[in-house]
Amino acid sequence: MFLLCLVPALLLVLDWSAELGWLAGWQSALGADQIRSTELRTGLWTLRFLAITLAVSPVRQLTGWSGLARYRRMLGLFVFFYAVVHVATWSWADTNFELSFMLKEIAKHRYILVGMLTFLMLVPLAITSTKGMIRRLGGRRWNRLHRLVYLAAVGGTVHYLWAVKKDTFFPLVYLAVFIVLLSWRVLQAQRPVITPRRTARS
Amino acid sequence: MLIRRPSDIPSSEITPEDQWLDRRAFVKRVGLATASVSLLAACSAGERDGADAHGVAADTAGAGLLQPNSYEDITSYNNYYEFGTDKSDPHDNAGSLRTQPWSVEIAGLVKKPGIMPLEDLLRPHTPEDRTYRLRCVEAWSMVIPWQGIPLRDIITRLDPLPSARFVAFTTLFDPQQMPGQRRPILPWPYVDALRMDEAMHPLTLIATGLYGKALPNQNGAPLRLVVPWKYGFKGVKAIVKMEFLDRQPVTTWNQAAPNEYGFWANVNPQVDHPRWTQSRERRIGEFRRRETLMFNGYAEQVASLYSGMDLRRNF
Question: Which residue of A has its CA nearest to B3?
Fold first, then answer.
């Protein structure tokens, strides 16, 4: 499972190795603008892993496959991993690590602002993903904090939607997927009979 | 402050350093005078009309120092929504376009309107080599070695009426051949236009080839507009109609998103697009962004066209 989640990253490494001439016989799929492809790919994998992570609970509830739950943390950390590569690529290739230029970009373009806010939301979730942090925070507070992931799903989709020039078909597909995943939770929260714990109501 | 450069310097005075270097190199190259036949032709053509001959020559020579992008990059990374919205779609899908036979409708305020077979339109002219920077509004750029005919030569022959102030170009509309047109991504057919003095500027080109080969379909075959100081979307591809007008026409991207894409679309590092900062660009093949030049580096030749115009409002 871990290796499967790493496949997109491995493909990226292989493609870049080929681009840099380190790997003969591998056909890079990055195209003419390798930076843009890298950003697009890592951004999409961030959203995909976010959707997969959010699908764990519904799938578990629908199928009764409780073993799925133990992958949730790892999947969530892969969301963060691809987001880090995404933001790092932008910071390096697009802003040359110039802080003042980065801040101007964030202030000027709403899709970058939303993207950055979304990334910042993911940071505390990744930090508090260890057993120790869960213990220290306490389950209740940890749960409340980790509801930020719903906001991150909205933020990530809006970032994608606003970044696209004209053809919004795929951003809208992601939007639809997240609407389904989030409304499942709203519906669950409104039917307290199914879950033994009633604290989920909000 | 968002803008570092003071805006009180007229754009005509902003001459980027590398352009100056290009100009000096031009003098040296003429001294060597090897492949300068087409350069000299461009000079004399310019002088005949009493215009910017110096500018054209300098640019054409400067282009000799520009490092063109590879044929593969130029033909596999395109914005041509008629064949799909991905950059690789035109390469993958444009094979369905048939460019022979082809004809162009000459319409509007012109001596002899009518439909002209492509051969008749192009035959009297000899294609010239023009290596230009291409700057996309999405903040990436390439250097492309075009072959083509200066638009002014074609227009002069077509003999528009004195009342013609704009010329509009229309792309073929045929969803059978252009699968991207089956979705209403843009209000088809694609139309863009130039003011007459822009169209008559010696840099403005009707491209018919690149890298010495026939223009590939994904790059706008059989004929496309190239206006090197404007964002790439002004370069109408697969032209089927040229219409001379007495007023500014509605253009496709401007119609689709008026606050994002202006009619003028001059490359301007000081005026940002809501989505893209225009002060820097990624030259395809380079890792870090480079500074974008005023009028895409052609300020020397074209800035005078816009003297007195507020380029911030007329973006």
Answer: A104
Q: What residues of chain B, 50 to 69, have a C-beta less than 8 Å from chain A?
A: 69
Chain A: residues touching B (Cβ < 8 Å): 31-33, 35-36, 93-94, 96, 104-105, 108-111, 162-163, 165-167
- Residue B171's CB is within 10 A of a number of other CB atoms, namely 25
CA distance B52 to A88: 46
Q: Which parts of chain A sit beneath pLDDT 70?
A: 192-202
CB-based burial of residue B32 (10 Å sphere; 0-12 exposed, 13-18 middle, 19+ buried)?
exposed
What pLDDT, in 10s, does the model give residues A4-49? 999 999 999 999 999 999 988 899 999 999 999 999 999 999 999 9
Inform me whether the pLDDT recorded for B2 exceeds 50. no
How far is B97 from B101, CA to CA, in rounded Å?
Answer: 11
Alpha-carbon radius of gyration of chain A: 19
- Calpha distance A41→A14 (Å, rounded): 14
Minimal C-alpha gap between A167 and chain B (Å): 6
- Longest Cα separation, chain A: 60
Interface test with B, best of A33, A44, A168 (most B CBs within 10 A): A33
Rg, Å, chain B Cα set = 19
Q: Look at residue B296 and tell me whether its pLDDT is greater than 70.
A: yes
Residue A19 with chain B: CB contacts under 8 Å: none
- Report the alpha-carbon distance of residue A71 to residue A74 in Å, rounded: 5
Reported pTM: 0.82
> Which of B77, B288, B289 lies nearest to residue A32, judging by beta carbons?
B77
Structural contact between residues B87 and B74, judged by C-beta atoms closer than 8 angstroms: no
Q: Say which residues have a Cβ less than 8 Å from residue B232's Cβ, sequence separation at least 6.
A: B79, B134, B135, B136, B137
> Mean pLDDT across the stretch B249-261?
96
Give per-residue pLDDT as tens, B213-227.
999 999 999 999 999
Cα angle B127, B128, B134 (rounded to 5 degrees) comes to 110
**A61, A66, A70, A71: CA torsion to nearest 10:** -60
Q: Given CB atoms, is B263 within the 8 Å cutoff of chain A? A: no
Q: Residue B23 contacts by C-beta under 8 Å, 6 or more apart in sequence? A: B58, B62
- Three-state SS at B315: coil
- B288 contact residues in A (CB cutoff 8 A): 93, 96
* Three-class secondary structure of residue A22 per DSSP: coil
- Tokens describing residue A52: 């997969």
Residues of A in contact with B282 (CB under 8 A): 33, 35-36, 93-94
Return the bridge partners of A96, or none.
none
